[in-house]
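Table S2 (text version). Query chain:
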Amino acid sequence: MLILLTNDDGIRAPGLVAMYRELVRMGEVHVVAPETVQSATGHGITLSAPLLTNQVTVEDTFTGTSVDGRPADCVKLAVAKILPRQPDLVISGINSGANVGINVIYSGTVAAAIEAAFLGLPSIAVSLYLRNEIPIDYARTAGLAMKVIRQILEGGLKGGQVVSVNIPPLRAGEPPTGVKVVRQCTAAWNDTYDERIDPRGRPYYWNNTIFRLGATEEDTDVAALREGYITVTPLQFDLTHYPMLREWSDREWRI
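Corresponding structure-token output:
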């Protein structure tokens, strides 16, 4: 199995290294990831500048290709030019931070996985919810993620399908509550901003929002992750609103 591994935290991110160490047990892993952190860049791609690449060796664990671009760029370029053949699976992560609720829209990690699905490939995004009081254990997170990834593949993940997996923060020896297949929470998340003044007297604004798993319906990714579950959410990139499409298609339109 040929696996493409990417992320949005950059090619040197510890979450990506931990995921690589688990994935090599499954197949041949090629890393193509951003040169720098690309968190919350969404599905942007580079059109007006060259995509510079370098061969990078990380922690004596792998040598991969860094791309001076966005996560979606990495997948596009890897499939079109870098990989020896089309990958059998694309994994994006482990992201340092949860990608649940509307964060899915902003996430570069999820965008990379969705880009792979655009290209007809099966893909999985993996993210870790962080809490300040709980030490980060990427190695254990990667091990838990692999157990879920294997089960997703055994269930029959097809080309063009994409799944988002989120791992809860766990203390040493603490097990997750379980695994839940849940929908994406669509509750609004209100950003807050600090207003500041620069040395020339001009106002500027700094986003100071702190992500928290707020109240939501119990069948959502946010609720399940808050309760300590590993969440599995199948996603789609077809944004068509089909009920409205059916309703409007019967209208008589005037020009």
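Notes on Table S2: The chain is about 25% helix and 25% strand. The helical segments are 14-23, 71-82, 103-106, 108-118, 138-155, 221-226, 242-249.
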